[in-house]
Amino acid sequence: MKVLIMAGGYATRLWPITKDNPKALLPLGNKTILEYILEKVRELDVDVYISTNRFFAEKFRKYDVELIVEDTVHEEEKLGTIAAMRNALNILGEDDYLIVAGDNVFSFSLKDFVDNFSGKTLIAVYDVGDFELAKRYGVVVLEKDRVIDFEEKPANPKSTLISTGVYLFPRDVMKLLNEYLEDGNKDSPGYFLQWLLKRGEEIRAYRFDGYWYDIGSADSYLEAMKTLLKESYIEEIQISPYAKIIPPVVIKKGTKIMGRSIIGPYAYIGEECIIENSDISDSIIFPRTVIRNSTIWRSIIDEKCEIRNLELRKSLVGGHAKIQRGD
Where would I find the Nucleotidyl transferase domain in this sequence (predicted)? Predict the structure, then answer.
């Protein structure tokens, strides 16, 4: 068996914070999204690969994982998940493949997932508990643990059980990727699963409770941080005696917390930021950003920004932005 972590997308829904950084390497508490996935994967004694694109490849080099690099540098060129899987198959050869989306964080054990593999396609399914929310995903209908119906992004979902970004495809199914793509089908795991069912292929489901986040939006990113950030991680910083820290928070080295600032709960502050007389909670602040006399709530602010005299709520601010209200 081989593990393939899919990180070849350009995460346009999270632009501008993902214009220069792959989504899998965004901070999530004191780790990156990828590090959470790798911790899960390393429960298994198998070869692990990351499928990414040429634009982001160098950013993954520091991880001790072999890369499969598709020759794309723009969103409109990307292969898509199924084509990227075929590309990896052509390079790595036939095997059973555990496919993990590089923007998913989840509570279940991959070892337990693999132990439930019977030789038939296995997918991890989660109950989102809401029919409107289910419309965004691939909706599953089960008979015990067998998938009897699957519909990608249905207008009228038949259940609230959805397929997450974890799949185990046996080698015989991996061999069908060429046929699927040559038939002109949509390049998406959900539509591939629909196609497999119509062919009479058996698909089994691994149902889990706990948490699951598909980090495709600012809201899901911030919610994932709130779930996973259980304790504070504070590096070497300068902090005013009048400032207050409300855990849990992450504050990286070189940051200065000045004046009567209040940081937390659920705040990530990157390296070498300056926070002065400001309140920051439920937010992610990237490195070398300056925030003065401001209130930041449920927002994401990219690196090297300057925010002064503002109240920002549910905002997404791109790198190098300078925003202020008159003194």
Answer: 2-230
Domain containing residue 290: CATH number? 2.160.10.20
Mean pLDDT (whole number) for 282-309: 96
Asked whether residue 292 falls in the same domain as residue 144, the answer is: no
Instruction: Look up the pTM and report it.
Output: 0.91
CB 166 within 8 A of CB 97: no
- Give 250-288 pLDDT, tens digit per residue: 999 999 999 999 999 999 999 999 999 999 999 999 999
- Please confirm whether the linkage preceding 16 is cis (ω < 30° from 0): yes
Contact 154, 139 (CB under 8 A): yes
Q: What is the DSSP string of 179-222?
A: HHHHTT--SSHHHHHHHHHHTT--EEEEE--S-EEE--SHHHHH
**Relative orientation angle of helices 81-92 and 189-198, to the nearest 10 degrees:** 80
Same domain? For 237 and 131 the reply is no
Eight-class DSSP state of 281 = E
Task: Supply the DSSP symbol for 111.
Answer: H
Question: Taking the CB of residue 94, how many other CB atoms lie within 10 A of it?
Answer: 11
Residues 207 and 238 both lie in one domain:
no
Instruction: Give me the amino acid identity at 178.
Output: N
Name, in order, each residue with C-beta under 8 angstroms of 288's C-beta and a sequence gap of 6 or more: 270, 271, 272, 273, 303, 304
Q: Which of 295, 304, 248 is nearest to 274 (CA)?
A: 304
